[in-house]
Every structure is written in C-alpha cells, then in structure tokens.
Amino acid sequence: MSTRNISNIVIVDYGMGNLNSITRKLSKIGIKSFVTSNPQELLNAEKIILPGVGHFKVAVDNLKSGGMWDALNTAVLINKIPIFGICLGLQLMAKHSEEGDSKGFGWLDADVIRFRIQDKFRFKIPHMGWNTIRQNKASKLFEGVEANSEFYFVHSFHLNAYDESQVLNYTQYEYDFPSAMGKENIYGLQYHPEKSHEYGEKLLMNFAEL
Fold first, then answer.
1. Which of 67, 81, 87, 92 is nearest to 6 (CA)?
2. 87 included as an active-site residue
3. Catalytic residue of the set 127, 155, 158, 192
4. Does residue 150 have an active-site annotation?
5. How many domains does one find in the chain?
C-alpha cells in the first residue's frame, strides 16, 4: 500500500501507552507517523495523536514534567492543530478527573468519573472488550462507519459530558456514557481504534484525511 501524503502526524510519548500498536496500525493503512516527546515537534505537527493507558494524574505529571503540557495547549488552542485522543488521551481533554483528583486540559466541557455501576455481577469494572457505539452527532471522523459498529474498550473511568453538542457517540454499559467527543479541531475516543479492526482503521484514516 502506498503511503499517503500526510507526513507529519505525531504520536505523543509521555510514557503511558502502547505506542507500537498505533504506529503499526497507521503503517498498515499507509499513513506515516512518528513518536515524539519533544515539545517543539508537537508545535510543528500537522496532526497529533494523544494515546494513553493508566492513571490520570500520573499522565498529567508526565506531560508537565516533559514540557509537553504547555506545548499541547499551544498546538491545539492557538495553532488549531487537529488532535485525536485515545482512551486516557480523551480523558485528559476534560476539565477534571476523579482519578487522582486532578485537572485536565479543559478543552472539552466534561469531567472524568469512575463508572457508577449498580449491578456489579453483570457489569465488571474495568469495562473490557467489545461494545457497540450509538452515533449522537454527525462528524467527518465517522464517515463510512456504520451505526452500531463495535469497538474495543478497556477502562474504569469515563467522561461525564455537560455539552451534548460535543458528544459524537454514546455506549451503553449498564447506562449510557459518552464514548466519543468532538469540538472544532479536537476529537477523542474512549475506545481503541488501533485494536478495533476494520472500523478502527477507518476512523484513523478519516482523522488523517481531515
């Protein structure tokens, strides 16, 4: 497969994510990318992917200590570079998280809360495995993705959104929670497109071609 003319997608390395699975998936669908922890490379990016698996506060501390926190704010809010958050990467875009009682970037009108599951026998935490999405708002990110498609999840916390217009998807796990968000140049998924086969590849392709 030929490589598409998208030469500067950077994947943020702040020590919390399976970066290899994302780079391999992008390479498979013909998209060039590179991993960086260099703040200047974030400012010069064409597009940014912010992945992440782990603890919210540790992620914030790692981004700040590496000089990437301020660079990402500038890249996203001032330079208007498109950014794509995955799992913890999405959660970091919110205002605050219960995990570590820590502030996020505040790009999205949402907070991060732990699942409020009542039936803990049926609905185990973490929420892990395949689940369907229900599209709430049209977005170029989801062009070619069928309604009620399945994606792969691994998480114990989720967004509690205050602005319905920013919610692209909902997913049900005892109750509905926002599983994809979008606002201007900011996009995020609670699920893992790099682990979600055909439709995950489609989402990554759509982001690359925005």
1. 81
2. yes
3. 192
4. no
5. 1
